[in-house]
Amino acid sequence: MELGILEVMAEASKGDGRTPLTSGEVAARLCAKNPDAPALIERLLRLLASYSILTFSFTTSAGST
């Protein structure tokens, strides 16, 4: 099954090569209709990161606690 997640990430990183995206941003660019899509995408990306296929970083937004 092809989801297009890696293509979305590659398109976003054109230029500087390191543009981070949230799972919500990936879901929005995929036009996902499932309201749980961001959580599912995040789980998939964490799985890929656990096998060193992708890298994963966790940051908090300014103003969040």
Properties at a glance:
single chain; mainly alpha; 65 residues
Question: What is the topology?
Answer:
Elements: H1 5-12, H2 23-29, H3 37-50
Helix pairs in contact: 2-3
Brief account:
This protein is mostly helical and 65 residues long. It contains three helices and no strands.
Molecular structure report:
The protein has 65 residues and is mainly alpha-helical. The chain has one domain. The chain contains 3 helices and no strands. The longest helix has 14 residues, at 37-50. It comes from Nymphaea colorata (pocket water lily). InterPro entries: COMT_dimerisation, WH-like_DNA-bd_sf, WH_DNA-bd_sf. Pfam families: Dimerisation. Residues 2-55 form the O-methyltransferase dimerisation domain. This is O-methyltransferase dimerisation domain-containing protein.
Count the DSSP helices: 3
Characterize the largest beta sheet: strand count, sense, and whether it forms a barrel: none
Based on secondary structure, the structural category is mainly alpha
Give the topology string: H per helix, E per strand: HHH
Radius of gyration over all CA atoms, rounded: 12 Å
Mean pLDDT: 85
Spans of 5+ residues with little confidence (pLDDT < 50)? none
> Approximately how much helix is present in the residues?
40-55%
DSSP strand count: 0
From the N-terminal CA to the C-terminal CA, the straight-line distance is 37 Å
Rough outline:
globular
Count structural domains. Answer: 1
Question: Strand fraction band?
Answer: under 5%
